[in-house]
Structures are given as C-alpha cells and as structure tokens.
Amino acid sequence: MKKSVVGCLLLLVQIFIARADHITGGEMHYTFTGITNGMYNYQVTAKLFMDCYSNRRLPDPAYFGIFNKGTGALITNISIPMAHQDRLTLSNPGPCITNPPSVCYDIGFYDFTVSLPPVAEGYVIVIQVVYRVQGISNLVNGYGNIGATYTGEIPGNGAVASGPENNSARFNSDDMVVICANNSFSYSFAAVDKDNDQLRYSFTNAYVGGAGGGGVNFPPSAPPYIPVPYGSNYGPGAPLGGNVKINSSTGVITGIAPGEGIYVVTVQVEEIRNGVVIATQRKDLQIRITTCTVASASMPPDYMLCKNSQTIELANLSTSPLITSTTWELINNKGVTVFNSNSPVTSYTFSDTGVYTVKLVINRNQQCSDSTISQAYVFPGFKPDFNVNGICFKKPTQFFDATVTSYGSVNSWDWNFDDGTGNDFSLQPSPTYTYQSMGIKNVRLIATNTKGCRDTTYKNISIVDKPPLSLAFRDTLICIPDALQLQAMGNGVFSWTPGTAIVNGNTATPTVNPATTTTYTVQLDDNGCLNRDSVQVRVVDHVTLLVMNDTTICQGDTAHLHVQSDGLRYNWTPANQVLNATVANPDVVTRVNTIYQVTASIGSCIATEQVQVITVPYPVAIAGSDTTICFDTRAQLQGNTEANRWVWLPSPTLSNRNVLDPVASPKEATAYVLSVYDNKGCPKPGFDTIVVSVLPDIKPFAGKDTAVVVNQLLQLQASGGKTYQWVPAINLSNPTIANPTAMYAAPSAGIIYKVLVYNEAGCVDSAYIKVKVFQTVPTVFVPNAFTPNGDGKNDLLRPIAVGIAHIDYFEVFNRWGQLVFRTSTNEHGWDGTIAGKLQPSGTYVWMVKAVDYTGAPYVQRGTLVLVR
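== Gliding motility-associated C-terminal domain-containing protein ==
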C-alpha cells in the first residue's frame, strides 16, 4: 500500500517564530470535498479568539500538525497564513443590564485543504499557542502563562466504514453574550452537522500547549495532551462550578454564574453515527464574567432539601437595582399554593415531603419584567457515600456505592475519579477504575434517587505503587523455648516466609518459634499489588545482665542506675523509691542506704542482679537568725558548722567571706548565704541563709523656729520616728511625746530645744527648734526700711508675727495705691519687684490683718522705705 499525503499540503521548510500571546479560545471544523486517487480531501477552517483590548497579535502564520489519532504518530506539519481577521463587538447589551461590560473579540481565520488516506484510527488536526490569558480564575491559583491546544478529529473507517467521508460538526452559536457574576445566564455552544449525525454535548478538559505547556508552540506536540490544572471546586465537568450545567442535546449551558473573573470553558460535541461515536470536536473559550447585574428572576435550577432540613431559603440571585418588586409562590403537586410572599428574601418550612414548584416574578407588568420556575425536592434523609477497595497504581480500584435514602431508591451515579485522563468517569453504581497516575485523588460521586434528590460527596484516596504495609517491630529477641506473635498491618492477603517454625503464616499475626536467629519476610497482596517487609527474630538461651558498681550519693539526691543487658523487660525493687521501675536505666531517690534489685527478662528467661546505693548526709551549715540594723551601721554575722571549709556570699559588703563571723555592712536588705563543705563523702555543699534587713535613714524634724508672747500656749510638733525625747524639758507638758505644749511666764531671747527621734529598732537622730518669748501684746513686726540689693542683708521685707494665731493678709502698696505684694504666710517677704521688674526707691504703705492667739482680730498699717 502506498503511504503518502497529497493535495495542498505545505511542508514545513522554514521556522518562523511568531508569538501568539493572550489567546482567549479556539475551535476547528472541516468539510469533506471528495476522493482523488484513493485520497480523502478536506477543507479545514480554524478560528483563534483574542480579546480586542489585549494589545497583542494573532499568529501569522500559524502552525498545524496532523497525527494518527490512535498511535499519535506525526503525519505532517504545515504552516498556514491567516486568511482574514474579523472583530466581534457587543453593541447593545439591553436595557435591563446594569454596568454592562465591554465584550469584544478579534477572530483569526485559517483555511487550508488536506488530502489523507483512510486509516482505521482516524486523524487529529492540532494547533498549539504559547499563552492563554493570565489570571484564569478556575485554574490553580489563577494559573497564568499557560499554553493552549485546539483540535479537530477526522474519523477512521475502523468503527464505521463511512467514517472518513465525514463533515465535522460546526459550532455556530453567537459568542457575544454578557455573563454577570452570581447571576443566572444562558450561553449556547450549539453546533450543526451536515451529515445529520446525532450530536451529544458535554464539558471536557481544556488542554495546555506543547509537551510542557507555555513553551514554544511550533510545531505542535503529539497527543495525548495534558489537561489544565483546575482549581478547587472546578473541573473538566464543572468549569464554572456546580451551579452551571450543559444540556447534552442542545449544547446550551445554563445556571448561576460564579464570581467575577476569567474562566476557561471547553465543550466537546460527539458525532454519533449508527450508535457509534465516530469523532469529537471541541470549542475552547476563556469567558469573562464581570460585576454587572441583570434584572432577572434568577434561582438555582432546583432546591435540594434532601439532607436534614425541610426549610427553604428564598432570595433572588439577581441583585440588580432595576428590580422594584418581587413575588414568590410555592405550589404543591396538586397545584395548590402553600405559600406566597412579596419579600425579596424569605423562607418557608414545608410540613410534608414532596416535589414543589417554586415560582419567582419580578417587576410584574413593568419594564424588565421576568419570571422563572424551579423545583424544590423535599425528601430529607438522602446522603451520598461510597467505599473503596484497592489503591494501587495501574491495578483495578473498586468503588462501592454506599448512598442511603429515606425516600425512593438511588437510581443514578456520576463518578469522577480525578485521574486527569479524560476517561476517568463512570455512570455505574459500583464501578472499577484503573489509575494511570499516583497521588491523592479527590474522587467525586454525584448520586440521585427516584424522588429527584441529588447530592455530591468527595473523598480523598491515595493511589500508590504498592499497598501500605507496616510492622509492629522489625527487630526483636526471644529466648528458647518461647514463641512470638508477629504483627503486620495493611489491607490484602498476607503470606510469610520461611514457612518453618511458624503457625498461621497466611495471616497478619502469625506465631513463630525458631530455634536460631531467623528473618521472616511478609508479602502483602492487594489485588495483585504487592509490598514486602521483614522482621528479624534473634534467638538466645539466656538473659545477659551486667549491673553497675555500687555508688555513693548525697542523702536525698537522685541517683541514675544503669545496666548492660539484652533483656526486653525490667523490674526494679523497692519500687516506691524508683521513678520508673520498668526501664533498664531508672532514676531513684534515696535517703538511706539501699540495695536495689533488678530483674531482666526475655519471655520466660530471667536474670537478677543487685546494686547498693550508699547515702552520705550533706554538711550542716547554720548561718544564724535574721537581724535588722540601723541605716549606715554594721552587723556581726555568727556562722556555725562542723565542716572544714566554708564561704559567705555575696562578698562585696563583707569584711571577710572566708571566716565564720564576718562583719556585714549592707546599704539595703541583703541575704547572706553560708556554704560549707566537708570530706565525709558528700561532695556537695550544705548551706543556710541569714537576711540582714536595713532600716531606712531617720529624717528627724522638730518644727520651724518660732516666736510667742508671754502666757501664749505653744504647740510643738516633731516627726520622723516612733518615739521622742525633748531636752531640756523646761516649760513642756510632756517631754516624751512628739507634740508637747509649752507656756512661758517671762520673756526670753531664745530657748533652744533638742528632740531625739527613735525608730522601731532604737536607732536615734536629732533636730532642734528655737523659741523666742516677747513681753508684749500680740503684734506683727514690720521693719521701716529694707535694701533689696542682693548683698544678703535686709534684702526682703518680711512680717514677723508674735502672739498671732494666723495672718489673713499682709499687703504692700506703692504711692499710687497699686498693690505690689500680698501674703498670708508669716515671715514670707517681698523682694522689691513686680513680675521680676525692680520697683523704684521711695515710700510704700503696708497693711496687715490677722487673728491673735486669743481669737481677737488684729489690724495694723504703716509705712516703709525701699532704699536702693
């Protein structure tokens, strides 16, 4: 048979690198034009879509590859110039759309003819581009800079003899459609078929470009092609999420749009002739969903109240500001309205099960009026579930439906095994699938029942190259004549080798009794998927046990005991002194000399040894009793011990830290630690602490010097301590209190009293006060002149009150009657300034008002001279 490709094939004779960035979609169709010399001729048209606003260019020329569909063998590569370019723009989005987006596509057309010999497998025509648009929302992390592959299939004659004489299905829908985020929509992927083949539509995988995606896209790589990495809640069967479906008969996708973003959507249409799928054509678009709103009656296609609740929550999914009225109506299967409401958001709890019609009307008899109906399935107690058997790569995995329903029976199953092959799905109740890749698979089951309930469940299963197998231990020891139970964990059929000295060797937990050291190997068979592991059983005829030498410790300390042994279990006595009596090397707390016994065992074999722990008391230190000293004094420490070495700390305030009776001179309370050492066997020190507290410095105060008149009662007031002693005691009511009174019968130039102030420890300090006694009536003495020149003599004009209880005010005025000074404090003086400004020399007037010690008012005025 002659193998050739003839007609208008253009061989790739040169490489012209043309970048096709930010492609937003593509599709392909062809027409069968006849047979020439046994070659089948086809007129092929490919379309590439690009956003008008991308500021990029479509590839010119574009590079196509033709491959054998079954084997992937390359037939030829061809370079095709762009035939023409069209622009599609949405000019009238309609009055009921708020904030409509700009929708515009540039479309490149590529036309060429090919002539191919008929083959059983058929052909696939391929074009690849370098980049899709960036930030695609339904891919992993908004995956960007990923290539794209667009295909068209020519059937072979293996399944249907007339397959090569095929005219492909051709998508003929309008691409100018506005989709608003979280609103209901309808978008057609409808196609026509010249041969009148049956057409069946479905969502499918979008492909990356080239072998790795995102690299140089010329020439195209051979099939099979890698699917794009869909993100969570999306997939080849749900590119716009679970609320968007495709009609398998019409190609129309409907539902509630996801949030704002760019979404890659790929629809395949299968051409079915005489019940056989002869070819599949694909259309791939990146659809832009924006934040616009449509004034529409928008609901989910159905409400599934099939889990636990019988309460329906109703809200129009359209949030358009053009909606002015809302009407809800719930109707049972007898046509009776059971609920209605005019609230935009409402709820209702059904009293009985059944299928109810939900009707929504907006803007009744107004512009943008719309209505829609949906179905509510109220049959609680429906829960999809499944079990899995077999998890090995390239071995059959069996899935078992475990869905439960309280009403009706389960009648459909839609499985997605998450293998990324394009054939990883099934409609069987308990299907078998052989995985072609390893890893975590997020298996999805959509189940329905005869009452119309539908729900989805997901489970992650781990597909591995061998079944998980684990052992309780891999190396152990037994003593003749004991037996040992081995323990393996996994799912499948177990078999152990060698078969000697073993019972139940085809179980996970056989019993072995070897006479010599033996390695047992276990094999786990999970539906032909194998894994192996081994355990060594060492065999001895006695227990080896070597204990540590006897030891000496300080009394009450913790000692660490240790042995050298091959024992598997241990027991120490006396157990009440052992912190963990079942380990080989425990810690013990010992206050008296103790013999510890350890028993080591391997099964029924045991060995016993002993170790003695001798205790020696800590050396005794006596630092003395705590004491308190006066401020800035010293304390004599008196330590006591039978040890032969000692030291006091801290040392900076001690006269000698290496004597038992140092002198301490702390400035503040200090804890002194006496540490002592002896040579009786305990290498650690004994210690004791004495605290020397330091009282604060005494601040004695006897009061300010004062003056009184004869027979005036004077109140003294000392402070700063706990007890007081006044000397001399002349004229005092009580010289041993802080506040004695005094009265004088004769004048005096000044009596000086000393007060001794004591604190709680008997520490003492002193202060003085001078009392003058005048033979006069109560008076305020004011000098007749003063010289505020800063020489320290007569610089202040001060009132001196004698026999006065208190001064109401003392005021000084200048010759214009202006007040220049005022005070109510005895001996508080004027410095000859106002606000820091010197006042001139001259005569000033003063006035004083007071109350004397008898309670009588006192008023006096006079003049004085300021001399500068």
